[in-house]
């Protein structure tokens, strides 16, 4: 088992939901891989901390008060609710936050182009055209696909392609 698969099923193992051959393979991997074994120990300690955390009860009548306000349709005051923090924020701070978000997005798009070597490079027009993956094309046969449901987008596409009315 590789580390990626082990990480995918580690929570199930910690919760006692993993059984059979997959559990045995995970246990063997944890015996060999110190990184995954440490992650398993960390997850187990988090689980134990959550299980032993003190539990608090809502005050008497809390649920009834919430339901009463919900039925009455009372507006949520500024500063409360899921987005109260945003409503209470000064306008200039909202603009600054929006500008920062736009900058981060632009930086991400630029970085993606630089890292992929497909955007913002000189000589891209001299690059060899990319060849289609013939192994994928050879492995897909139209008879393996099911019928196209009537009036679906696929049906509309095929009828336009067959009649040549795709102007």
Helix/sheet category: mainly alpha
CA-based shape: extended
Enumerate how many helices there are, as a single number. Answer: 8
What is the oligomeric state here? single chain
Uncertain parts:
none
Instruction: Tell me roughly what share of residues is in helical segments.
Output: 55-70%
How would you state the average pLDDT, rounded?
77
- Content of β-strand: under 5%
Say how many strands there are. 0
Order of helices and strands: HHHHHHHH
Radius of gyration: 28 Å
Largest sheet at a glance? none
Short description:
With 167 residues, the chain is an all-alpha fold. Among the domains are: 3-52, no CATH class; 90-116. The chain is 61% helix and 0% strand.
Q: Would you kindly provide a written description of the structure presented here, covering whatever features stand out?
A:
With 167 residues, the chain is mainly alpha-helical. Among the domains are: 3-52, no CATH class; 90-116. The chain contains 8 helices and no strands. It has helices at residues 3-14, 20-32, 34-52, 62-72, 84-87, 91-116, 134-139, 153-163. It is extended, with a radius of gyration of 28 Å.
